[in-house]
Design brief:
Blueprint (H helix, E strand, L loop, with lengths): L3 E8 L3 E2 L11 H16 L8 E5 L11 H8 L8 E4 L5 H14 L5 E9 L16 H7 L6 H11 L4 H20 L10 E2 L5 E2 L11 H4 L9 H6 L16 E11 H6 L6 E10 L9 H12 L8 E4 L5 H9 L13 H4 L6 H16 L3 E8 L3 E9 L2
Parallel strand pairs: 3-4, 3-5, 10-11
Antiparallel strand pairs: 1-8, 1-9, 2-8, 5-8, 6-7, 9-12, 11-12
Keywords: Acyltransferase, Transferase
Family: Belongs to the thiolase-like superfamily. Thiolase family.
Protein name: Thiolase family protein
Length: 393
């Protein structure tokens, strides 16, 4: 089967997903259009040769309701014959877009695909697509009467793995510290493309990183998910998940150009990475956030590899308890896990995060001489994707 390679990968800066955030005046269509345009310009590919644009997006409502990839492509001024599709696998939507693109190439359906992700959480708030609706229905509620919001699931994960409040806060502070040091060293410069706001300002760096964050400062925050109802339902939990040790609500976009190895060679392009293997799993919908553990086991087995062969791992920091629980099951060297910080520091623009993490992972491997990277993300409903890439730099 044709091998799928990643020719290039870029992302926008990360902006705080609220009114006044650096990207909050940018329509999501224009935010994604700018990132895709930069990707096309960097690679020199003819946009008319792109066969499909696969875009991860979670809140498909309001300004993100009209196949945002299609609108972004048209806004960029590219040929109208190129189609787009929107992919929604919760937090893993952007990663699933990459995997579907690679699978289409491997199947011989495509030669050239752009996989991307978009989420403007300031303009389309989380949950907009199902406000006032019952997303589960009586059948699911009867089968799983203990379903809880993700924040409570994060508490259940922390409780099951015996993680303390101090461990969660220390991990969160580490995320900010690693991202701060990476930004100061220029490690993100090759992946971030500037965004022009509605007011004409140019945004070139992440707004979300908080230099100087300490575990001691984070310890002063109150638990975010302890309500009268949750305290009654789970009387044994020592509530410890806070806004400080959880991912940030964020605006952002990311895009990647994937090709068959034959197409890249024909066009004289040098791929940056190769997709080695991928997996997707379902897991306990109440614990919800534990899927990265079996997804990792499956993708390693599929690739015929061990975790010791992986040079860097990105486990999405939806909540600090997620990578910490994963790390308890896969005790790799600490400096290989989320080496440049994660969603706690950089933010989590839902549909864009999968492509953003992979963009950062590719750059980290190139800049440190690493060969293999693994990326995995927990997803609402108890699902998870995992992907192994090989750096070709």
């Amino acid at each position: 089967m044709p091998g799928a390679v990643i020719v290039d990968a870029v992302r926008s800066p990360m902006g705080r997903g609220k009114a006044g955030g650096t990207l909050s005046t940018v329509h999501p269509t224009d935010l994604l259009a700018g990132v895709i345009t930069a990707l096309v310009e960097r690679t020199g590919v003819d946009p008319g040769d792109v066969e499909d644009l696969m875009v991860g997006c979670v809140s498909q409502a309001g300004e993100q309701s009209s196949t945002p990839g299609r609108q972004a492509w048209l806004a960029a001024g590219f040929p109208v014959h190129v189609p787009s599709v929107t992919i929604e696998r919760k937090c893993g939507s952007g990663q699933q877009a990459v995997e579907f693109a690679a699978q289409g190439i491997a199947a011989g359906v495509y030669d050239i695909v752009i996989a991307a992700g978009i989420e403007s959480m300031s303009r389309v708030p989380m949950g907009s697509a199902r406000m006032g609706a019952d997303p589960f229905g009586p059948g699911v509620t009867a089968r799983f009467p203990d379903l809880v919001p993700q924040g409570v699931s994060a508490e259940l994960v922390a409780d099951k793995w015996g993680l303390s409040r101090a461990q969660l806060d220390e991990y969160a502070a580490r995320s900010h510290d690693r991202a701060t040091r990476a930004a100061a060293a220029g490690a993100f410069d090759d992946e971030i493309v500037a965004v022009t706001t509605a007011e004409g300002g140019v945004i070139r760096s992440d707004e979300t990183i908080r230099p100087g964050t300490t575990a001691e400062r984070l310890a002063g925050l109150n638990p975010a998910f302890c309500t009268e109802d949750t305290a009654r339902r789970f009387p044994s939990i020592e509530w410890k998940v806070t806004a400080g040790n959880s991912s940030q609500i964020t605006d952002g976009a990311s895009a990647m150009l994937l090709m068959s190895e034959e197409a890249a060679a024909r066009m004289g392009l040098s791929p940056r990475a190769r997709i080695m293997a991928s997996s997707v799993v379902g897991d306990d919908p109440t614990l919800m956030l534990t899927g990265p553990i079996p997804a990792t086991a499956r993708v390693l087995a599929r690739a015929g590899m061990s975790i010791e062969q992986i040079d860097a791992v990105e486990v999405n920091e939806a909540f600090a308890s997620v990578p910490l629980a994963w790390h308890a099951e896969f005790p790799i060297d600490d400096d290989r896990l989320n080496p440049r910080g994660g969603a706690i520091a950089l933010g989590h623009p839902l549909g864009a995060s999968g492509a953003r993490l992979m963009t950062t992972l590719i750059n980290h491997l190139e800049q440190t001489g690493g060969r293999f990277g693994l990326q995995t993300m927990c997803e609402a409903g108890g699902m998870a994707n995992a992907t192994i890439i090989e750096s070709l730099a």
